[in-house]
Amino acid sequence: KAFVKLHEFNLLDADFGYKSGVEVQKSISLDKGYHPLTLYYLKDKDSKADLQLQFKQENGEWHDLGETCFY
Q1: Mean pLDDT of 17-30
Q2: CB within 8 A of 71, min separation 6: which ones?
Q3: Burial class (CB in 10 A: 0-12, 13-18, 19+), 45
Q4: Which residues of 15-42 are buried (b: 16+ CB within 10 A; e: fewer)?
Q5: What does the angle CA 1 – CA 52 – CA 34 come to, to the nearest 5 degrees?
Q6: What is the Cα–Cα distance from 46 to 24, expressed in whole angstroms?
Q7: SS3 for the chain, per residue?
Q8: Is residue 46 predicted with pLDDT exceeding 80?
Q9: What pLDDT, on the 0 to 100 scale, is given for residue 49?
Q10: Per-residue pLDDT tens digits for 26-41
């Protein structure tokens, strides 16, 4: 299960809108600059959970949201 906030906007919420264990994509347009992201993640003791955060630029290429994206 995951809950993701971008600024004060609830971007993803496992309790509303999607089932745990499936891939989910959301789109939002952002201006250049700092955008606080909050991620809450809960893994079942019996599941093999996998979490991957990516972003897509205007050119359409997906990139991993890695250490360099965080302050």
Answers
A1: 76
A2: 34
A3: exposed
A4: eeeeeeeeeeeeeeeeeeeeeeeeeeee
A5: 100
A6: 21
A7: CEEEEECCEEEEECCECCCCCCCCCCCCCCCCCCCCEEEEECCCCCCCCCCCCEEECCCCCEEECCHHHCC
A8: no
A9: 62
A10: 788 888 888 888 888 8
- What type of residue is 57? Q
Q: What is the pTM of this model?
A: 0.64
CA distance 52 to 64: 8
What span, in angstroms and rounded, lies between the C-alpha atoms of 53 and 49?
A: 13
Higher-pLDDT residue of 21, 58: 58
What's the rounded mean pLDDT across residues 38-49? Answer: 76
pLDDT beyond 80 at 6? yes
The residues, ordered by sequence, that sit 6+ positions from 61 with a Cβ below 8 Å of its Cβ are none
